[in-house]
Fold:
Amino acid sequence: MIDRTVPYFPVWMLREDGAPIPARSLPGGYAFDFYRPETGKDDWVTVQLSSRQLETRAQAESLFDSEFMNRAEALSQRMLFVRDAAGTPVASAALWFGSPFGAEIDRIHWVATDEAHQRRGLCGAMLCELLKRHEALGTPGGVYLISQTFSYPAIRIYQRFGFRRLLTRCPAEYHLDAPFAETAARAWAIIDEKLR
Structure:
């Protein structure tokens, strides 16, 4: 669920390696499927549009290319979909790459669920699967993600999986004019109020 009525601020969260992964599985009628070269881009676009994270097909296709095609060889191991009983992609998330503090580490990236399939545990099941994949790949440095204030329902899920707020350590992706700590404090005040 996205709540665009709250002011927008980005938030960064980090999960340290070695933290336990909560066990979550998909409910009946759903199945995991990793990226397939022949349909993966269209599947991702479908999920982004049905989740209302993005508004147009052209915008989603362009974003997919800019976000993922620079490491296309990794997609089949790092982009996860959930399909419903009819085989339609209804959720997606990626274990992608980022360098928020210099060295490259894993990143949970572009988590989205079709609005008609939200609140069924799909996000938690995808996080569980991708964090297990992170452990299997052995990439050091933890896992981070970037979210935003209007995705506060998802932030609660991330917290359950051991992601902790970054409040003072400024990541390389931060590009707002205000100091990072000031923006983080404002963002988390909004999120904390919404999650009470």
